[in-house]
Amino acid sequence: MNVLEIACLAVVVLWAALRVRREPDVRGLATRALVIATSAFLAEDTCIHLYGFYFYARDRWTIFVDQVPLLVLIIWPIVILASIDLLKTAQTATARWPFLLFALVVADAWFIEPAAVDAGLWTWTSPGPFSVPIIGVLGWGFFAAGLGIVIGRGWPIAVALVVAPVVCHALLLVTWWGALRWIPSPPSWAMVPVAWAASIAVVVSVWRARPRGQRRGVMLRGPAALFFFGLLALYGDISDVDDPALWAWCAAFSPPWLALIVWSRPVLPGGPSDPPDIGTLVQ
Length: 283
Known about the structure:
Elements: H1 3-20, H2 26-51, E1 54-56, E2 64-65, E3 68-69, H3 70-89, H4 97-118, E4 122-124, H5 134-152, H6 160-178, H7 188-209, H8 215-219, H9 222-235, H10 243-251, H11 254-263
Antiparallel strand pairs: 1-4, 2-3
Helix pairs in contact: 1-3, 2-3, 2-6, 3-4, 4-5, 4-9, 5-6, 7-10, 7-11
C-alpha cells in the first residue's frame, strides 16, 4: 500500500469513526455501506467492461476487485451516506431524494474527478474539461439517483444491488446517445466562470435560507476535501497550461460548504440533534 492509499484510507477511517459515534444502529450502517459498495462495484465494473471510457491506473492502486480498486469501493458509501445525512438533516421529502442525491453527488464528482485525473489516479478515454467528459461526472449522479429511488420509496436496501446499476446504465445510454455524443466538449477555462457563478449563487441562497443543523455534516466532509486539494498540490503539474484553471475550478467548490458552516443555525430546542436513522426508511 503506497502513501496515497494510506492517506485515502486514513480519511475513510476518520469519517467512519466520527459517523459511528452518532449512529444508533451501527450494524445497520455497516450493512448499508456494504450494499452501496457492492452496488458501486457492479455499476463501475460493468461500465468499464462495456464502454471502456475510463480505466484506473495500476501503478497508483495496490488492490483491485477486477477493474476497480478496493479503496474506491470503500469510498463510495462515504460519498452516498454523507449526502444522505445532509438531506435527512434538511428534512427533505424522500420523494425528492433521487434528484437531490443526483445533484449533490454530481457536485462532489465535479470536484473529485479533475483533481484525481490530474493526479493520475484514473484516466478517461473521451475528451472533456480538465480531461473529464461530462458523461463521466453524470454517471456518478445517475448511480446515486438509483440509490435514491430505492431509499426514497422505502424498498429494502438490498434492492439497490440491482436497481442502482440498472438505472445508472439506462441513464448513461440515454444521455450519451441522446445528447452528449453529439455535443462538442467545452474547454477547461470556459468552465471556471460557470463554476464560480454557481458557487456564488449557492452562497447567497445559504445566506438567505440559514438552514438548520448542517454544520456537523459539512465538517465531516472536511478531511476528504483536504485530501483532494492535497492531490493537486502534490501531483499537479504546475507547468500544465490548464493547471491555473484547475485550481480556480476546484477553489469554487469551497465557498458553499464554508457558507453552510458559518450560517447554519443550531437545531431548535427539543428537536433531533442528529439525522434520523436511515434504517427506518429502508426496512
